[in-house]
Amino acid sequence: MKVTVHQLQEQPPALLEQRVQSGKECIVQRQGKDYAVLVSAQAWRQRTLGRRIDALGPAYRLAKRKQERVDTLLAARQERRLTSVERRELKDFLQEYDDIMLHRAAALDILR
Question: What is the Cβ-side half-sphere exposure of residue 18, based on CA atoms within 13 angstroms?
Fold first, then answer.
């Protein structure tokens, strides 16, 4: 959603409530250009916390090359039956992903 600075000045409570309820951002434009972004405090915390966890290192995220391969395998699975080698590869990636999620969950307790 995009609004102008003028619209924001006219309807601040309603716009803020919409952002809090939806969790989605609102881009504020000034003179036709993006000027600021409104997001709920909860959405902001989630974004910044995710970045802080990612900054902890590779044990807290799937490597880009592996993530691309997972995406490819999942897309292929929508179009056709995966080969046994592909299914095994996807299973291994998903196990690694589960381990990463456990690391991230533990980090949440530390970073909060």
Answer: 13
- The single residue listed with the structure tokens 């952002």 is 19
pTM score, whole prediction = 0.53
Give the model confidence (pLDDT) of 43-76 as tens digits. 787 778 878 887 887 878 888 899 999 999 999 9
CA angle, 67 as apex, 84 and 49 as ends, to 5°? 140
The string of DSSP letters for 35-77 reads EEEE--HHHHHHHHHHHHHHTT-GGGS--HHHHHHHHHHHHHH
* For the chain, domain boundaries: 2-39, 57-111
Q: Map residue 80 onto helix, strand or coil.
A: coil
